[in-house]
Amino acid sequence: MTDMANGALHGIKVLDLSRVLAGPSCTQVLADLGAEVIKVERPHIGDETRHWAPPKFSDDTSAYYATINRNKKSLTVDITTPAGQTIIKQLVAESDIVVENFKVGGLKKYGLDYDSLKLDNPRLIYASLTGFGQTGPDAKRPGYDYIIQGLSGLMSITGPSDGEPHKVGVAVVDLFAGLQLTIGIQAALLARQHTGLGQHVDVALLDSALAMLANVGMNYLASDQLPPRLGNQHPNIVPYQVFETAEKEHFILACGNDSQFAKLCDLLGVDWHGDSRFATNPQRVANRELLCAELAKKFSEKPRTYWLEVLDDVGIPSGAIHNIADALTMPQAQAREMIVDFAAQGSPVRALGNPIKLSASPVTYHSPPPQLSEHTDSTLADLGYDREMIAKLKADGIV
Fold this sequence. Notes:
Elements: E1 13-16, H1 22-32, E2 36-41, H2 63-67, E3 72-76, H3 82-93, E4 97-100, H4 114-117, E5 125-130, H5 145-151, H6 172-195, E6 200-204, H7 205-212, H8 214-223, E7 240-244, E8 250-254, H9 258-268, H10 281-286, H11 288-299, H12 304-313, E9 318-320, H13 324-328, H14 331-335, E10 339-341, E11 350-352, H15 376-382, H16 387-395
Parallel strand pairs: 1-2, 1-4, 2-3, 4-5, 5-6
Antiparallel strand pairs: 7-8, 8-9, 10-11
Helix pairs in contact: 1-6, 6-7
């Protein structure tokens, strides 16, 4: 745990109007980097993910909610009411960043859209994360990670070559879009130093997913040929896939160049690197099925532990396929502090750590995911509301 005053974004205030996964994943990164993040939730209900359980921790915090809501303050406000809108506008007036993931135009009817809020705070950076973006024929459609994985083509290249398309095991489009939004916000902060003005950051799940197609998308643009679904094989490199060993265990072989392939052949006692069908990577890609069938026979002769050891000895990249428990208990993961325990703060929550390591302004883990409305009184008091005013707001169901 480190002092948030040393964080790279110390002094930056974020009003988080987002919910579920993509938007909150962005604001958690900002909070880890030292920004003050006030999460606005619905009174008595909160973020939907508070109820996405089991599993839960012993303090009733759902594991899903805890994934992307540490280091934040929880303020409950009914933004559909004039009094609630007043509170939000008061907070916006002293905020650097607003993050929201409402449908396009969803906040305009409350006067909480960018064009309305920038009039009183021209330095405001207003970050919107939606399914399809602020423009285009599909702009008003709701967006969901699973649907976008399908629409973007990502599922068409994921899964067994002879089976149905598969989604990725976690909501990667939401998480990548959250990272893109974080990058956009930080770029806008830098731009504001030069211009003195904020701007609207517009990130879409679909755009992020299309960008994630990376080399596979580029393969199509270069060839006009639809990329096939290859399961655990690589579209551009061979051999670069999963193999089964003698004990029915699996490992990954990532033989990335001709030199590594020659080492592999020497290790296996074969001369395939001198065979015109396999000598170069393009030849191996063209003869993928023949080569990999022969490799499968070789690797089935001995256990995984043997192969991982000898491959490592000669410098050929390979690795085991871990389950989640294996992965999180790796000495390397522990050395990199990739599990955060909030016991020192009196919370039972353990969370996955932030992968960003900064030498001079490290990420902070100063508070566990907040209980619903935990910071409502203190936040309103900071805005000048006294006890009687806060009690009235609560009685009226505003907060």
